[in-house]
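Hello, quick one for you while I still have it in my head. My current little project is about how a certain protein chain folds up. You're getting the sequence in one-letter code plus the fold written as tokens. Would you mind checking whether the tokens look sensible for this chain? Here's the protein in full, and shout if anything looks odd to you:
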Amino acid sequence: LEFETQEYSVYITDDKQTSNGSGILFYPGEGELFYVFTCAHVVDSLIDPIHIYLLCPIDRNKEEYRICKVSTTHEKITYSPLDEITEEMGTHIHSVDIAIISLTKDKDLILQETKYFFAEVVKGNNVFAQGYPGKIGNPIQDLLENLDTIIGKVRHNNPRKNSFTFRTEDSGSPLWLRDNVIEDVPEIAGLVISGMGQTVYRGNLNAVNIEAVKSIMKNHFHILIPSRIEGIPEEDIALGRNFFSCNKIQDSQEKQ
């Protein structure tokens, strides 16, 4: 599963690598717009232009990728309307630590529809974080070699802040479920906020619940990203389908 999800992780920084973090790629499968989900604090201190680096596959079986770069500005970032920002020792603290970066795909950037579900975690779930801890040399190269995967287990399932039994210093990394994977379709549970602790055995990792991303995508961008629902066949759930289009189709059928 880690092999299949690695190209969804992106590296986020600016010209001077003022700060850096990770995010997760989302492309609905059509149109020029695609998105990166990350944590709000990852982009707080970045200076425009913001650069997002992707692993674009050449040959997945051989793990051959080229590095693709897309640049944007803070104007293209959407935050949760429920987010309340406080300041602590000069640092912004977000109550809902989520940011969605909308990007425009040029004709040379070939993206395939990102197929994954959103998932809710429960205590005891096995998960793994996958992202880029620390700065990468400038110019950006060897992206795949810097991609790290850390495995852990959910300790608490607070709907807004989950703690895990492993340590990481990377922010914005996607947290994937390792349990109950059906037909190799990945399920994402959250985004890394922060890591605490000195050892892999005693450290805790905090993550923001992925449902906050789902709400913004639905209400702001009109895109419905499905969650895995027990008892509903996978073919009945359309990944990345435009939410307004679904409503129009349903209204038309009801009139008939």
